[in-house]
Protein: MYND-type domain-containing protein
Organism: Schizophyllum commune
Amino acid sequence: MNDDLRTFTIKVANFQVPVTLGFYYTGWVLALAKPANANSSNPLEHGAIVTTLNVLGAEQSFPPPDPETGRPAFYMMTDSENRGMLPQLEAQGILKKIKPKDRRKGTLVEVLLKDTEIAHTCMKCVKETAPILQETPFELPGEPRLRRCSKCSIVRYCDAECLQADLTSHRTSCHIWHDRPHEAARLMENQRRADLSIYLAAQGFQTIAGTGGERRQDGRLLNGCLVAFIPILLAICLVWLGSALWV
């Protein structure tokens, strides 16, 4: 059971909500520490994810764990919806700021929790819900823990069915998750962005491909690459779908 899962309370605007620190392989979130309720008077309880912590964008990087402690690190978004969040998380011993803010990458923070205190999610399920991460279920207090790969000790699955469905894919990346989890996360994020471009195209949004100047349908040049526009495209798509998720 999830008796070791660390739960704590955070405040956003005038609302308070119980959360856990959630890890979804390519990023970190504050996950709701109870089942989501779309009818709740607290808007923070409408989805499984209260807020996304890590920076999403073209400059996103995946720093390796601390060589001495083995603690994972990531670049945290501290502006916009996350303004004032880091001091709350530091005060409760969840995260620790280890470098000043980099405009391109965010604030580098270190995770202070043990692996057993972190809420994980199923690898197969997170791949299926990657375009709309808000629907991704995380481990909850009082419920059985997910099954963990015995070789890499990082990837989790809901059950044997999810494991079997993702087995072929995980066999090719298991050793990378074991030896260089930050590199495995980078590769997975690249695939997620490729899948997202397909998802957006299916919803009727025109995406930008390539790394150089690309031409629009009207013939004018567009500079930049797809990954630089993914947060914007995703936000537009989610508004169109009526979702409350932001990135």
Observations:
- The chain has a mean pLDDT of 79.
- The longest strand covers residues 15-23.
